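This follows on from our talk about sequence and fold. Go ahead and set the record down below:
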Amino acid sequence: MAADTPEDINRQRRRFLTAATTVVGGVIVGLAATPFIKSMEPSLAAEAAAIPIDVDVSKLEPGQLLTVMWRSRPVWILHRGAAQLKTLQDPQLVARLKDPDSKQPQQFGAPVENWHRSLKPELFVAVAICTHLGCIPTYRPEIAPADLGPTWVGGFFCPCHGSRYDLAARVIDGSPAPLNIPIPPYHYLGDTLLRVGSLKGGKDQNWQPAIW
């Protein structure tokens, strides 16, 4: 049987989301138990226009996750600590990734097609949507928790159907999700000020991945 195309997967996701709105809502509530900081959402006018948003990350400590909204989608900003970054190059983890080198068009371009999938290794930006059926994965920084097993070294876990991603949102083999989680266009306005939704000069505001 031929593999599903991105169009087929997106069609399946639309059907799933229509039937499972309450499940996704439950996932959002469950996020309260994870160590992240939830930010204020941008104004309704900004969201409606899908314009870029500016995010101050000056108070984001190593290991903390900030969630903002862009284009009506949640976006993660994770401050990865040194130990978390080290896991991303662990040969045992890399061998279990579907797309370890970010060959699929799930990021805005070459500047983030690296082992950490970010402009700066410590600060990671990604759209917080599983590429399987569109649920919101949870941030699971623990090492080898009982429910995820001894090979888990921290990452993102989708409770809807069990997809697993590392701390660069690269999908782990055996997950139903087909691709890595998207990296949206973004750039730095200063050392601790990000603009999410465009590159310098306002470029790539209409960027789309193969699968959201």
About this structure: The chain is about 20% helix and 20% strand. Residues 56 and 190 are 9 Å apart (CA to CA). Residues 1-41 form one domain. The longest helix spans residues 6-19.
